[in-house]
Write a structure and sequence with these properties.
The chain has 1019 residues and is α+β, with helices and mostly antiparallel strands. Helices cover 46% and strands 13% of the residues. The chain is built from 31 helices and 22 strands. The longest helix is centred in the first third of the chain and has 49 residues. About 9% of the residues have low confidence.
Length: 1019
């Protein structure tokens, strides 16, 4: 119930659910030591991951959340925080003992990874261990899917699963309780709450002290039995089998069927049903004169036993019923809580209640009545009224003055540049992840989060509950945020693409008095006013990324609290608007090396209970990571690339189902397709395969049912493997490398997702504009691109392979260095070589199922090949004959006004080429910092070629003028063409705006930039 409620409250979906304070929640149930068997030995949350799509989402979610959740539980239990060697995928152990190793679990689900457990894991290593290897877990999952009820396993020797202190020779079983995905009757099992139970818990504290002893023999239908002797509130395990030794009383045996552990075996899985045989002892015979007494004792035992179960079931039923009623209320409360502090929220509610009464409408009138004697003694006192000032609010302001607060303002450094290359959903994923983590830290530190303005986060300590140690608390919180930011952006790089880990945070703190209150109106907000928040903003903007900048006032507050060693004076004075030059300080992180509190600190009593003492010492934030190995970096890029291609591959499958054709080719067709692919993929043939018109499919996207977009796990794995091998073929150039290819693919994906028509839902983004007449008009307006998932897949695929095996020099130099390649390819050597290498690898037998998903007939095969060739060859922008041919195709396509299919396909063909061209130089049409980054990488590549004698000219010569020429004669005209084709919406405006801004900035600062690059790479 807790899991479902929390999932509903946080809008989470299984298996992506983490229960906060898991250790505390089950603490009351856990076994405290090996002699106390009054509760479960361990309790574990096992999410159920059903298919490969869910697995990818789960592994990304667990990567971001699981290690930290386990670390928090370690702190709660007093362990030394240790994340251990976290394994970022669902895995199994192979081998035994010291020879064992870990491998990813197989491609077929379901998987049942270990996620949260109590007692807490000593490290994060065992998180994601696939417990589906235990046959009883898979069997019980099948039963729970069918019956929605809990399952008790047979008796097991679970020594290998228990810590040394928890090991016992008493009978133990595994109790699996299903966790449903929601409260509806058709909900699925989203996870299992697994408890390892000693059977002692069912017999201890069952009878009052002084009750004569009773033997209890537990039996199950799995041919297992064991015996307990129950003496009052104590229960003693005697051993396996029926060990009842008073033969004279066998006929007095009473058998109780344990209905709670008697599952409906509808699947014939040989589940164990349990029963208990009760026997009297000689002591009972001596205490009672009739057999009826023993019967009464048995009834008492049965009553106690099943009353507990009945109450539990009733309690569960009532709670679920109440939960349904409270769901809407909980969501509303959560929204209100996030906007207003509790004190202000209660005043707003009271005000609303008072406004419905009599005589309470004007707070000024009430105040005047209270002070009537003052008016009589001092003369008439005029208060403004609604008649005097019609705009004047008649409600009492909800505001307070706080004389001692510390405000933090934190701004994400590099965010504007980063977001310029991302989709809106990716931007919000980043902000929600970072700010969600900050919110959690704020709750822990008792800091109040005020608001977020853009990418700026505002928080305050010292209100709404005043506290003397506001500066110390905010200093610790700011350090927590700095550390968390570093962790989160490195983890998100896998999900949001390259460059995410370079984001930083700039933090400013200032202390002083603050006015806080609810600014009412159409959209009421809790806000801060006064000089303190203005100064905090100045301190933040004049700070440095990944450092905590504090004012003189905050430094004084920390010094008074005995934290002078936290503060380092900034060497230079800072000019703050409205303040002039001011002296500021850095919050200096350090290692205390002790778990004791820093002398003189003023911790809040409530905080002391919730935060371990080790958290009170400000520790140094994680330093920026050194550059990871190429293999490790590439793995993240590959995973991100898979996420770009996979949705389009799924849409291809769904389209085939909608057409009524087979999702994959038959054996005979597959053999024929292999032969055709081999013929059209002959080395050196790409140049002759460039087409003026590529026929796009005429089937409309509206016919696609997303429910049919199902790919096998083998296909997904082959896609990942293919991209991994492609990434390794890329050379370690500064510019023409796999990272740049992924950046090009990301830009192409962004352009394709912006394919819009004034009206209909875009199949990729789900965004809706105003209505068109129908699907055909959408198809025609977008030149058929919105209806062609195979085309979209091929464009992004081309972007990822377009520079495979690039040698780091232009084609004219490559012609000199590689005569064999020059002989094979008469022109566009690098581009044709990339196509042939990528095609040859795709035709390998290991990618047979992947090929079948991409194309299932010869028409699709030839279409895929045509897009691949035209797109990749379009990236050779300096081959004059190809550039002239493209210009002629553009002029012919857009001079033509015919509405026919051929005209539409002609336009679509040239637009596809310009998509890949724009993506290849997208850094010129993105934020200035993105342009500078890739411009420097290209300069470095050319400089290296010059140093090695592979280029005749030092890149410093003419680089400034060359960039201006490139903007004027290629980049800006290209942005104009994208806009004129009319299918990309606001992206064209965005591209053009950035291109012109970068051109202006380069003209102003380019010579200085070139001078710096020359010193760095050419000296």
């Amino acid at each position: 119930l807790i899991f479902i409620s929390y999932a509903v409250k946080t809008d989470s979906t299984f298996p992506m659910v983490t229960i906060p304070d898991f250790e505390r929640r089950v603490d009351a149930l856990k076994t405290k030591d090996k002699h106390d068997t009054s509760g479960p030995i361990s309790v574990t949350f096992l999410p159920v991951v059903r298919d490969m799509n869910e697995r990818i989402l789960y592994e990304q979610y667990a990567f971001l959340n699981a290690p930290e959740a386990n670390k928090e539980s370690q702190i709660v239990t007093g362990m030394e925080p240790n994340t251990g060697e976290y394994v970022p995928f669902i895995f199994q152990f192979v081998g035994e003992g010291d020879n064992s190793t870990i491998l990813p679990s197989g491609p077929d689900g379901p998987w049942i990874p270990l996620y949260q457990t109590s007692p807490t894991l000593p490290s994060a290593f065992f998180i994601n261990w696939d417990t589906a290897v235990y046959p009883w877990n898979m069997r019980d999952l099948m039963v729970m899917d069918e019956t929605k009820s809990a399952v008790m396993t047979e008796i097991f020797d679970l020594t290998s699963l228990l810590s040394e202190e928890d090991q016992t020779n008493h009978p133990t079983s595994v109790f699996n309780e299903p966790i449903m995905t929601n409260f509806s009757t058709n909900a699925k099992v989203g996870g299992m709450l697994q408890a390892i139970l000693s059977w002692d818990i069912f017999f201890k504290n069952l009878l009052p002290d002084g009750t004569p002893s009773v033997y209890a023999v537990v039996r199950n239908t799995c041919n297992q039995s064991f015996t307990y002797e129950i003496i009052g509130s104590e229960a003693f395990y005697l051993g396996e089998g029926n060990l009842y030794r008073f033969s004279d009383h066998v006929d007095l045996k009473k058998t109780i069927i344990l209905e709670a552990f008697h599952p409906k075996d509808e699947l014939n899985l040989d589940l164990c049903a349990y029963s208990v045989d009760l026997y009297p002892t000689n002591s009972m015979e001596e205490s009672y004169q009739t057999n009826a007494r023993f019967l009464i004792a048995g009834i008492i035992l049965l009553t106690f036993f099943f009353t507990t179960i009945t109450i539990a079931v009733y309690d569960l039923t009532v709670k679920r019923r109440q939960e349904k009623v409270m769901q809407s209320h909980t969501k509303t409360e959560r929204i209100i809580d996030s906007f207003f502090p509790s004190q202000f929220r209660e005043r707003l509610f009271e005000e609303d209640s008072d406004s419905k009464g009599e005589g309470n409408g004007d707070w000024r009138a009430n105040k005047a009545n209270v002070e009537i004697k003052n008016i009589n003694s001092t003369g008439k006192q005029d208060l403004p009224t609604h008649e005097d000032i019609p705009e004047l609010s008649m409600k009492k302001p909800v505001a307070e003055y706080y004389d001692s607060t510390t405000i933090m303002m934190a701004d994400i450094h590099g965010f504007t540049a980063w977001s310029s290359v991302r989709e809106p959903s990716q931007v919000f994923m980043l902000l929600e992840t970072i700010y969600g983590a900050f919110d959690t830290l704020a709750q822990r530190r008792h800091v109040f989060k005020v608001e977020t303005v853009g990418d700026c986060y505002v928080a305050v300590a010292g209100l709404p509950t005043p506290r003397k140690d506001h500066a110390c608390v905010m200093a610790r919180y700011a350090h927590d945020c700095l550390t968390k930011m570093s962790q989160v952006v490195h983890k998100l790089e896998v999900v949001l693409g390259p460059g995410t880990s370079t984001l930083g945070i700039r933090i400013g703190l200032h202390s002083g008095p603050t006015i806080a209150g609810v600014l009412r109106g159409e959209k009421a907000r809790f806000q801060l006013f006064g000089d303190t928040i203005n100064t905090a903003s100045r301190i933040e903007t004049t700070g440095t990324p990944n450092r905590i900048h504090i004012s003189h006032t905050t430094a004084d507050e920390l010094t008074k609290a005995g934290k002078r060693h936290w503060v380092t004076q900034r060497e230079d004075l800072v000019f703050a608007k409205g303040k002039g030059e001011i002296q500021t300080y850095w919050l200096q992180a350090h290692h205390s090396g002790s778990t004791a509190r820093t002398p003189g600190s003023l911790e809040h009593p409530e905080q002391t209970e919730k935060v371990p003492l080790t958290e009170y010492s400000i520790e140094k934030a994680d330093p920026p990571r050194s550059q990871a190995s190429r293999v490790a970096e590439t793995a993240g890029l590959v995973k991100f690339s898979v996420s770009l291609l996979l949705p389009h591959l799924e849409q291809i499958t769904a389209l085939r189902v909608a057409q009524g054709s087979s999702p994959t080719p038959s054996v005979d067709s597959s053999s024929k397709l292999t032969e055709v692919a081999s013929i059209i993929g002959q080395p050196g043939g790409a140049l002759d395969q460039i087409k003026d018109i590529i026929d796009l499919p005429q089937v409309l996207a509206a016919k696609i049912n997303s429910a049919d977009a199902v790919l096998s796990n083998n296909v997904k794995e082959q896609l990942r493997s293919y991209l991994s091998q492609i990434s390794l073929i890329y050379r370690a150039n500064s510019f023409h490398n796999f990272e740049h290819a992924v950046s090009v693919a990301q830009s192409a994906s962004k352009l394709l997702s912006r394919i819009v028509a004034p009206g209909v839902v875009n199949i990729l983004t789900g965004e809706k504009q105003h209505d068109l007449k129908g699907d055909q008009e959408l198809h025609d307006h977008t030149l058929g691109l919105a209806s062609a998932p195979l085309t979209q897949f091929a464009i992004i695929f081309s972007a990822l392979i377009h520079d495979v095996d690039h040698r780091g020099v232009p084609n004219d130099q490559l012609e000199t260095e590689e005569p064999s390649l020059a002989l094979l390819y008469s022109q566009s050597i690098a581009e044709q070589n990339s196509i042939d290498i990528a095609w040859r690898l795709l035709m390998d037998d290991q990618f047979k199922e992947l090929r079948s998903s991409i194309y299932s007939n010869e028409e699709e095969l030839r279409h895929f090949r045509s897009i691949l060739v035209n797109s990749t060859m379009a990236t050779d922008i300096f081959e004059k004959s190809l550039a002239k041919a493209r210009k002629n195709r553009w002029d012919a396509a857009f001079a033509e006004q015919s509405p026919g299919v051929e005209s539409r396909n002609r336009k679509a063909t040239i637009v596809i080429e310009h998509i890949i061209q724009a993506s290849d130089v997208a850094h010129c049409m993105q934020h200035w910092h993105i342009y500078k980054k890739w411009n420097e990488k290209l300069f470095a590549e050319r400089a290296e070629a010059f140093r090695k004698g592979r280029a005749d000219q030092n890149p410093t010569e003419g680089w400034y003028e060359g960039e201006l020429w490139f903007f004027d004669n290629y980049v800006i005209p290209l942005a104009n063409k994208l806009e004129s084709c009319g299918v990309f919406g606001v992206s064209c405006v965005e591209f053009m705006s950035y291109a012109k801004q970068n051109r202006v900035e380069w003209e102003k600062t380019g010579k200085v930039v070139v001078s710096e690059l020359s010193k760095k790479y050419c000296s």
